[in-house]
Amino acid sequence: AQKITQTQPGMFVQEKEAVTLDCTYDTSDPSYGLFWYKQPSSGEMIFLIYQGSYDQQNATEGRYSLNFQKARKSANLVISASQLGDSAMYFCAMREGNSGGYQKVTFGTGTKLQVIP
Amino acid sequence: EAGVTQFPSHSVIEKGQTVTLRCDPISGHDNLYWYRRVMGKEIKFLLHFVKESKQDESGMPNNRFLAERTGGTYSTLKVQPAELEDSGVYFCASSQEGTSGSIYEQYFGPGTRLTVT
Question: Which of A3, A37, A66, A103 is best to mutate for the B interface (most B CBs within 10 A)?
Answer without folding.
Answer: A103
